[in-house]
Prior knowledge:
The complex is a heterodimer.
Chain A: H1 6-22, E1 28-33, E2 37-38, E3 43-51, E4 55-61, H2 63-74, H3 81-103, E5 110-111, E6 115-118, E7 123-124, E8 129-135, E9 138-146
Antiparallel strand pairs in A: 1-8, 2-7, 3-4, 3-5, 3-6, 4-9, 8-9
Chain B: E1 3-7, H1 11-23, E2 30-34, H2 37-46, E3 51-54, H3 63-72, E4 81-85, H4 90-98, E5 103-106, H5 111-130
Parallel strand pairs in B: 1-2, 1-3, 3-4, 4-5
Amino acid sequence: xxxxxxxxxxxxxxxxxxxxxxxxxxxxxxxxxxxxxxxxxxxxxxxxxxxxxxxxxxxxxxxxxxxxxxxxxxxxxxxxxxxxxxxxxxxxxxxxxxxxxxxxxxxxxxxxxxxxxxxxxxxxxxxxxxxxxxxxxxxxxxxxxxx
Amino acid sequence: xxxxxxxxxxxxxxxxxxxxxxxxxxxxxxxxxxxxxxxxxxxxxxxxxxxxxxxxxxxxxxxxxxxxxxxxxxxxxxxxxxxxxxxxxxxxxxxxxxxxxxxxxxxxxxxxxxxxxxxxxxxxxxxxxxx
Lengths: 147, 131
């Protein structure tokens, strides 16, 4: 299989995840500059790419969509914040892994364990551009920063 | 009763794997869970298990180390180990099969693939029983 470029690999990873976990098609994707700050109860999950290059994935989940996404993924109503965090970490890890598998076929790669962050205050986001993927009336923001 | 050990540090992933197996027809299976390779080995040394599903990327002991430990153990090396991972590409699959993984499935799971693996495991279990 031919290796895809970065954005194609990400688009494919998002489309496959949406289809297989949520039985939905991606309805829209657009890139935007991040002018806002992280906060208001939104959630951020970081996943480090360790090998064969170093980079960091950021997955941004708006609070109003996060619970709905994890509920749909599990097929049952979630009953704790711990379950929500675990679900968002697993979702982020799956997308990051699928991205890498699409991007690199002929050598092994390694990614770190997902790291969850929430913010009660206002924090500047550690990236400038974000790709927003929309499906099933929900949204996942994805940014990839080389280290 | 078929006993299946699911090893993943994510409770969400363990639940999704269990549901997929049940949807594929194994409704009367007994499920055991571990959140890393160390816990899995403890369980495997305490009780008989028919099949292991393991993630790769886990704290303490990862799935590759668990697979190697199982295959190096005369007591456990007969066990089919199915790796379920978001890290599956051609290179990873080749390496894991060389380490005697029964199969390597990508996350998110595709039900036809789970069904096929379960059929293969059952078939080889019956064949062993007949011998």
